Please model this.
Amino acid sequence: MNRGFSKRGGDPTSVGSVLDRVLSGLHVAQGEIAAAATDIWADAVGPDVARRTRASGVRDGELLVEVCGAVWMGHLAVLRQSILEEMNERLPAAARLRAIRLVPMRGKEGSRREPNG
Model:
């Protein structure tokens, strides 16, 4: 009686490759990409920028970064391409970003986070 199992044989398949195929149809991979990008943000930009920003997620390959203050928004707009390149060097190929979108930091935290200077 065959219960839907194929006959054994051939080369073994790694668990990782099987999981990649199974998860590719799910949106779990997108969450992992967002987590990877937001986790490396502070290391990629350094402590000064990290204190004034927050990487909050990824949508369609675009990293959303909240920025504290107009001066820093302008500064990061100039540096955006080099930051994108640095981020993509650190990310796995499947998690590469296509863009960085800068938005004003919301609420009280935005005004509280920007130190003098």
